Amino acid sequence: MTTANEQIADKLKYNENGLIPAIAQQHDTGEVLMMAWMNRDAVLETLSTGRVCYFSRSRGKLWRKGESSGQIQTLVDFRYDCDQDTVLAQVDQLGVACHTGRRNCFYFAARDGAEVVISQPEVAVDELYGKK
């Protein structure tokens, strides 16, 4: 018998590589934290555990957000768009979301014809990943 989570995962439209874009948004502030990719297994794990899981294209395997940095995303609401080809994971982010130590990954802005860095790291990368 197919579970409700499997029905949802099967309904989503993945690209030719079996991936779907997933946007992580802080549930209570609306802050867009990051964009990553999920495959069917990542969707199922996220829905079944409540801890957000992505698919790492560089590592070629599931990536549980925070497994090496401790910066965990707990799922609050799992949404998908009208075309069923993009996921919105509303999360409770523990710590920073970006691997650069910033709160979110969207810290570049185009302003007055120039690229501007609009936020600084809150945590040193060495501290995040224990590379002291």
From TrEMBL:
<comment type="pathway">
    <text>Amino-acid biosynthesis; L-histidine biosynthesis; L-histidine from 5-phospho-alpha-D-ribose 1-diphosphate: step 2/9.</text>
</comment>
<dbReference type="InterPro" id="IPR002496">
    <property type="entry name" value="PRib_AMP_CycHydrolase_dom"/>
</dbReference>
<dbReference type="InterPro" id="IPR026660">
    <property type="entry name" value="PRA-CH"/>
</dbReference>
<feature type="binding site">
    <location>
        <position position="98"/>
    </location>
    <ligand>
        <name>Zn(2+)</name>
    </ligand>
</feature>
<comment type="pathway">
    <text>Amino-acid biosynthesis; L-histidine biosynthesis; L-histidine from 5-phospho-alpha-D-ribose 1-diphosphate: step 3/9.</text>
</comment>
<keyword id="KW-0862">Zinc</keyword>
<keyword id="KW-0479">Metal-binding</keyword>
<comment type="subunit">
    <text>Homodimer.</text>
</comment>
<keyword id="KW-0460">Magnesium</keyword>
<keyword id="KW-0368">Histidine biosynthesis</keyword>
<dbReference type="GO" id="GO:0000287">
    <property type="term" value="F:magnesium ion binding"/>
</dbReference>
<dbReference type="GO" id="GO:0008270">
    <property type="term" value="F:zinc ion binding"/>
</dbReference>
<feature type="binding site">
    <location>
        <position position="83"/>
    </location>
    <ligand>
        <name>Mg(2+)</name>
    </ligand>
</feature>
<comment type="similarity">
    <text>Belongs to the PRA-CH family.</text>
</comment>
<dbReference type="InterPro" id="IPR038019">
    <property type="entry name" value="PRib_AMP_CycHydrolase_sf"/>
</dbReference>
<feature type="binding site">
    <location>
        <position position="85"/>
    </location>
    <ligand>
        <name>Mg(2+)</name>
    </ligand>
</feature>
<comment type="function">
    <text>Catalyzes the hydrolysis of the adenine ring of phosphoribosyl-AMP.</text>
</comment>
<dbReference type="GO" id="GO:0000105">
    <property type="term" value="P:L-histidine biosynthetic process"/>
</dbReference>
<keyword id="KW-0963">Cytoplasm</keyword>
<dbReference type="GO" id="GO:0004635">
    <property type="term" value="F:phosphoribosyl-AMP cyclohydrolase activity"/>
</dbReference>
<protein>
    <recommendedName>
        <fullName>Phosphoribosyl-AMP cyclohydrolase</fullName>
        <ecNumber>3.5.4.19</ecNumber>
    </recommendedName>
</protein>
<keyword id="KW-0028">Amino-acid biosynthesis</keyword>
<feature type="binding site">
    <location>
        <position position="82"/>
    </location>
    <ligand>
        <name>Zn(2+)</name>
    </ligand>
</feature>
<comment type="similarity">
    <text>In the C-terminal section; belongs to the PRA-PH family.</text>
</comment>
<feature type="binding site">
    <location>
        <position position="105"/>
    </location>
    <ligand>
        <name>Zn(2+)</name>
    </ligand>
</feature>
<feature type="domain" description="Phosphoribosyl-AMP cyclohydrolase">
    <location>
        <begin position="34"/>
        <end position="107"/>
    </location>
</feature>
<dbReference type="GO" id="GO:0004636">
    <property type="term" value="F:phosphoribosyl-ATP diphosphatase activity"/>
</dbReference>
<keyword id="KW-0378">Hydrolase</keyword>
<dbReference type="Pfam" id="PF01502">
    <property type="entry name" value="PRA-CH"/>
</dbReference>
<dbReference type="GO" id="GO:0005737">
    <property type="term" value="C:cytoplasm"/>
</dbReference>
<feature type="binding site">
    <location>
        <position position="81"/>
    </location>
    <ligand>
        <name>Mg(2+)</name>
    </ligand>
</feature>
